[in-house]
Each structure stands twice: as C-alpha cells, then as structure tokens.
Design a protein that fits this description.
Number of helices: 15
Distance between the termini: 64 Å
Radius of gyration: 29 Å
Shape: flat
CATH superfamily of the largest domain: MetI-like
Largest sheet: none
Number of domains: 2
Helix content: over 70%
C-alpha cells in the first residue's frame, strides 16, 4: 500500500478542544458586552444630549429675554464670539492663569515635598496642614483671601505693609490677575505636594547613601537622583491640574467679577457672562464649543509632550 493511499483514506481528526475554547471566549465576550452595555449607553446619552443641545443653540439666535425669537443664524454666533473684544483677553488670561499656577504649584510642590520628606518632630501634623487647603471649597478660599488676607484696609497683607512703613496694596484693583493667581496657587500647591510627597517615599535610599559616600552634596543628590525620580509624578500633576485650571470660575466670580474690564476674565467666565449676564445663550453655546476645542488642543499637546514620560521605561 502506498503512502498516498494511506493519506487519502485517513480521516481528519476533529479539533473539539479548539472549538470549545473559542466558543467559551465568545460567550465571555457576549456576557461582558451585555454587562457593560447599559452603563456605556447611559454615559453616551449623558454626554451626547448636552453636546447636541449646545450645538443646536450655537446655530440659532436664542436670547433669554426673547425666547420665542430663535431663528437659525448658522455660524454667526461663532463669528461674533471670536471677534468679540473679550475673547482674546479671555484666552490670554486663561493661558496666563494656567501657566502661572502650573509653574508655581510644581516648583513650590517639589521644594515643599523635599523639605517635609526629611524626618523631624511633628512631621505628620505639618503634612496634614500642608495639604488641608486643597480640601477647602474654592468659594470659601476666595472669600478668605479677599476679606482676610488681601483687603487693603483690614487684611493681613495690609498689616504687614503698614508694619514696614509701606503703603498697602489694593490687590484686586491694581493687580487683579496676580491676586487670582495667588488664590488658585494656594489651592493647588497642596495637591502637588501630596502627589510628590507620596512619590518620594519610593526613592531608593541606598542610592542616596552611596551618593553621599562618593561626596555628593544635597543639591547634587536633589538634581541627579530626586528630581529625575519625580519626573512622572510632575507629569501627572501638570496634566491633572491643567484640566481643572482651564475651567476656573468660582475664584473670579467671588472676588473680581471678571474685572476691572476684562483683566481677570477667562474663557469660562466670558461664557458665563454671555449666557447669564447678557442673556445670549446662542453666543454662549458657541463659546462653549470653542472652549471645548481649545481644551482638546491643549490636552493633545500635553499628551504628546508629557505623556511620553508616563510610558517611558525606567
């Protein structure tokens, strides 16, 4: 009997094991899809409905004083919002506010985290006090700074100025945006301290001891060991804070009301003023969509610049 005859008469062996494994995988996928589908559907509705309504209102002329006059205007709301004198001021103030607070929070957060990382008496109490401002509501902290600290007559800063024989500064009239930056930075520095202080707990102490034996000083250890170890936590701080700082509103509304003029008006407050102060919901909706586009552009830049640091191998 030839080999070809044997091969022709052989029956294929059924691969029941492979089929059963594939069937089990497909069944698990179906169960997982059925389990996740309701929550995904709710999230989609939760996001799509407000977005669809915002797009709809951005294409019509809708004023709260004349709700029945809602004619279709196309892209006119976008044109009027982008050419409004407050848009450029709001965009620049937003970028300046976000950039300044990020620099202050990262630099101060790193320095404070390194200082409180060393053991000393009462370190636990100091750490709790350092992160406590982060848990204060923005409106409350803005009121505290406005009435107790930066008040030109009875504030703490005014008392210090008078003690040294200087004239107190009316911060919200002379330096309004800088005052907002101080308030927001005071709120977000504790967040940076908390993350960076936690990251310092995983620094290799043996590496530090070896560097000291080799004659490295505190500055060299900080620059070559501590700071590279904090690269990823700093990236996380920058990305998370940027998301929230783009929508700062309560501090501006409580203290300056966007003024004087447009000096403290950011995009979030500009959209609020268009909708609830000028009653122009159509233009405010267009501004909201513009703000979403700007936020996505900033997020994409951050992901490309900082996200690589999060995925890089140590």
């Amino acid at each position: 009997m030839s080999i070809s005859t044997v091969q022709a008469g052989a029956k294929p062996v059924p691969q029941t094991g492979t089929h059963s494994v594939n069937a089990g995988i497909r069944k698990r996928h179906r169960v997982g899809l059925m389990t996740v589908s309701p929550s995904v559907l709710v999230l989609l509705v939760w996001m799509i409905v407000p977005l669809a309504m915002t797009i709809y209102f951005s294409l019509i002329h809708y004023n709260l004083l004349y709700p029945l006059e809602n004619k279709f205007v196309g892209l006119d709301n976008f044109y009027y919002f982008l050419t409004d004198e407050g848009f450029m001021a709001g965009a620049l103030n937003t970028l300046w506010l976000v950039g300044s607070v990020l620099v202050i929070s990262v630099v101060a957060g790193v320095l404070i985290a390194v200082l409180v990382d060393a053991p000393f008496w009462g370190r636990g109490i100091v750490r709790v006090m350092l992160i406590s401002p982060f848990f204060i509501m923005p409106t409350v902290s803005a009121l505290v700074w406005k009435n107790l600290l930066l008040n030109p007559v009875s504030g703490v800063f005014a008392a210090v100025w008078k003690f040294f024989g200087a004239t107190p500064i009316d911060w919200f009239s002379q330096y309004p945006l800088q005052a907002i930056i101080m308030i927001v930075s005071w709120q977000w520095v504790p967040f940076a301290v908390l993350l960076l202080m936690t990251a310092l707990q995983s620094v290799d102490q043996e590496q530090k001891d070896a560097a000291r034996l080799d004659g490295a000083g505190p500055i060299a250890i900080f620059w070559h060991i501590t700071l590279p170890h904090l690269a990823r936590p700093i990236a996380v701080v920058v990305m998370i804070e940027t998301i929230f700082l783009l929508s700062i509103f309560a501090e501006i509304y409580t203290t300056t009301g966007g003024g004087p003029g447009y000096e403290t008006t950011n995009l979030a407050y500009l959209i609020f003023s268009q909708a609830l102060l000028q009653f122009d919901v159509g233009m405010a909706s267009a501004g909201g969509l513009v703000a979403v586009v700007i936020a996505n552009i900033v997020a994409a830049i951050l992901i490309r610049m900082i996200g690589k640091n999060l995925t890089a191998k140590v």
